[in-house]
Amino acid sequence: MASVRPEETVENDALPRAMAAESKLYVDIEEGCSPIVYRDEYNIHLLGMEKLHPFDACKWGNVVKNLKKKQWLKNAKFVSPNEASEADLKLVHSASYIRSLKWSINVAKIMEVIPAAILPNMVLQKKVLKPFRFQTGGSVLAGKLAVEHGWSINIGGGFHHCWGNEGGGFCAYADITLTVHFILNHYPHIERVMIIDLDAHQGNGHERDFMGRKDVYILDVYNKFIYPNDAYAKKAISRKVELFAYTRDEEYLDRVSTHVEGALNEFSPHVVIYNAGTDIMEGDCLGLLSITKQGIIERDEIVFQKVTQRRIPIIMLTSGGYQRSTAAVIADSIDNLSKKSLINILV
């Protein structure tokens, strides 16, 4: 992201209300569904090319498979989102950026799988960008569900490296930005939004989108030695916690607990978006931190406990996590949140 000029910004302080109202992303859910959002179209199958990236391109489906292995969750009903349309995306993305995705080389760069540039764009639209658009729709819908039910989880989303004019780092659409704008436009009583970004990487996408905004507070805890190291975007961080490589559980959980508490006391948000990346886990070749599986479960519990005890709605997005084992960890964490009565999954 260092090549992006700071002055390149997108004017998206407020959505055109009429356009937002016409969107089909806010849907009513069936009775008996829990506010967990997922559909099979989240998963990426690109003729085997997806295996050229360390990311598990079927992570989202594997999370659900692991959840369904838990006896009490076998019959749980989740919410199916709609695909974000081009009109939806243009509420936060420039027209030039949307057009750029019609070139395969640009999509391949975002995916970090350069050989994919040889594929026809229609293949990448269907096999890569369509899953991302469904996940983006899932994040937006999760915002609605959190406001109505007190919490929600999108088993996907968290594309925190994408902003209005540019994608990158396996992030093609700015779902966090879009989710914030939908909430602020549809719920007049919500005036302040907090983003708690605990992915291993700096969330430079939403930071660029909300630069200078007083109604959006960003807490970002990340490894300071890895991608994207976006110095300009850091100016938008309200509370910045930079970690050394290979930070372990004790220090990490102490800092998360301290700074989540401090941020909530400092800003008093009306809703929280929690970007819960699992690339902090030991062995992750891109996150380069050393948090155990149990540490991730405890981290999520800390965040949910501190937010829900204040009766603030919380939206959880699964974001990064590049090991095959992360899907099971996410499922175990959701299971733990339920057992601790921090969420209530209907079965």
What's the gist of this structure?
This protein has 347 residues and is α/β, with parallel strands linked by helices. It has helices at residues 17-22, 59-68, 86-89, 95-100, 104-111, 121-149, 175-186, 204-209, 231-234, 249-267, 293-308, 326-339, and strands at residues 33-37, 77-79, 151-154, 193-197, 216-223, 239-243, 271-275, 314-317.
The domain tally reads: 1
- The CATH topology name reads Arginase, Chain A
Strand order of the largest sheet: 2-1-3-8-7-4-5-6
> How much helicity do the residues have?
25-40%
Number of helices: 12
Shape: globular
The average pLDDT score comes to: 92
Q: What series of H and E elements makes up the topology? A: HEHEHHHHEHEHEHEHEHEH
Kindly report the name of the CATH homologous superfamily. Answer: Histone deacetylase domain
CATH class: Alpha Beta
Largest sheet: 8 strands, parallel
Flag low-confidence runs: 1-14
Number of DSSP E strands: 8
| Radius of gyration (Å) | 18 Å
